[in-house]
Design brief:
With 143 residues, this protein is of the alpha/beta class. It contains three helices and five strands; from the N terminus they run αβββαβαβ. α2 packs across α3.
Length: 143
């Protein structure tokens, strides 16, 4: 009778595939976390001053209403083509040296129309462009 315990074969666990899977998971989460951060761009818009500035004679005022009409120094334009806008801006800034352009765009105005006005001003070399804002009133607290 043999009372000696049987010698068991030593058990080896190969962890190489496990390390490969963990490494791939780590890469996957790193790449997906990078895309997640890039898609959450935060934009901080400038705050409006509570006290309006006095109007300056040496500036060009452009108003864009929600029905896509453009007014330059309170004169309505016949259409919204870039050539028309450029000619009207040229006439308004004729005697002025590097005048600031003040754009008063309605909140419901088309973004493309505002960009068209800015592009016409840039083509004429008028680069001092400002947007008129109004002071926001405090919203009532929900309670």
């Amino acid at each position: 009778m043999n009372l000696r315990p049987k010698r068991r074969n030593e058990l080896n666990v190969d962890i190489t595939p496990l390390i490969d899977v963990v490494f791939l998971l780590l890469l996957f989460f790193m790449v997906s976390a990078t895309f997640d951060i890039a898609s959450q761009i935060k934009i901080t818009l400038p705050e409006a001053s509570e006290t309006p500035k006095e109007g300056n004679v040496d500036e060009v005022n452009i108003a864009i209403d929600k029905t896509d009409r453009i007014f330059i120094n309170n004169q309505a334009l016949v259409n919204t083509q870039i050539e028309t806008i450029r000619e009207a801006l040229r006439d308004a800034a004729l005697d002025l040296e590097d005048p600031p352009i003040i754009i008063n765009a309605d909140a419901d105005a088309r973004h493309q129309l505002v960009i068209r006005v800015m592009d016409a001003a840039r083509q004429l070399g008028l680069v001092r462009i400002t947007f008129a804002t109004r002071a926001l009133e405090d919203e009532p607290s929900a309670g």
